[in-house]
Every structure is written in structure tokens, then in C-alpha cells.
Amino acid sequence: MDDTVETRWWWVRHAPVTANNGRIYGQQDLPCDTGDAKAFDGLQELLPNNAVMVTSSLLRTKQTADAICAAGLVPAERLEIDDLKEQSFGDWQGLTHEEFGLTNAGTSAHRYWLAPAYERAPNGESFTDLVARTVPAILDLNDRHAGKDIIAVTHGGTIRAALCYALNLDPEAALRFSVGNLSITRLDCVESEDNRHWRISFTNCDPRGTGRIN
Question: Which fold has domain 5-205?
Fold first, then answer.
């Protein structure tokens, strides 16, 4: 008898934020632009109905989830989890990227993120802090909804944190993942009586294509 339980996580990054005029926003609660009808049509085609839909507490994830549902997706329930919100960039929030560079806010330049994974923003968080905050929430949801589909509409940092845990990566390595707005990343938690592992089905999938991914 096969007692394996698979819980499928469908991670979706929120729609683009344009109200910030290119400034660093982190945990600032800004609205997003949900006008890309083709992307939302693709999301409702690719994502499973009757799933548990989860957002963070920030407006842009809830607006994105609303738009996916307006396109035709029907979740079984919706939950809001504060610990899935984006990394706080503290005093860096509100700065343009040029201002950030001129103030030497980061101790060293970073190619893929504002700062190295272990560097904490003044009055904010490091990416490592984000991983530590996010992973317990993921595991709690995974236990409470084992064997189901979970659609998590969250943030680029949150999705990188999930990949960091699933692949047992050093946080610095996890920052190399590209996570586009409205992209889908699928992680499957596969559990048996004495073992749990994570399978990476795909990352950063553009929903503007055609067909359903199973």
C-alpha cells in the first residue's frame, strides 16, 4: 500500500507595482497593476481549481488573487498569512536605486538583490531573516493542508525563500533564482511515513503561454 502524500504548492508572484515610480518598496503596502488580461487568463488556465489560495497581508498579493479569481479560477478557500509578506528593507524603502547606491546603504554591491543574503537592512530584515520567518509558515500550511493543492500568491523574496528551503540552499545561492511578476513556481512536498522531500517541478513559468500544466 502506497502511503505517500503529495502536497502541491503553486507559487505566484504578485502583479507589477508601478505606483512606486521605481523606488524600493519592500513591505510598503502599495497597489499593483492587474491590467495584463492575457497573463491572468493564463493563470486561471494553469492553476488548479478547488485549491487552498493563500496570500500575504500586503495589498498587492490580495489584488492579484482577486484578479486570478475574476478570470475564472475557483479556490476552495482563501487564507491571509502575514508571515508570507516580502522582506522589509527598512530605511531603504522609498529610495530610488540611484539614491540607494549613492548613500552606500548596502555594505557591498549585489548582482541579484539589494544586498547580500546575510546583510540586514537598517530597521529592516536580511534575506536570511525572511527565510527564517517564512519557512515555519510554509510548514504549518503544509501540515494543515497535506495532500492538497496550495496556491500561494506572494512575493519574489518569499518564493526565493521557499526555494531556499526546498533545495536546502545557502540563502545567498537562493538569490540567483529569477522570479518574474505573475510567474508560477511549482514545489511538491512528497511525504511518506519516515521521509519528507521536496520536488521542484518548475520555476518562473510565464502564464502567457497555452495549455494546462499538471
Answer: Rossmann fold (3.40.50)
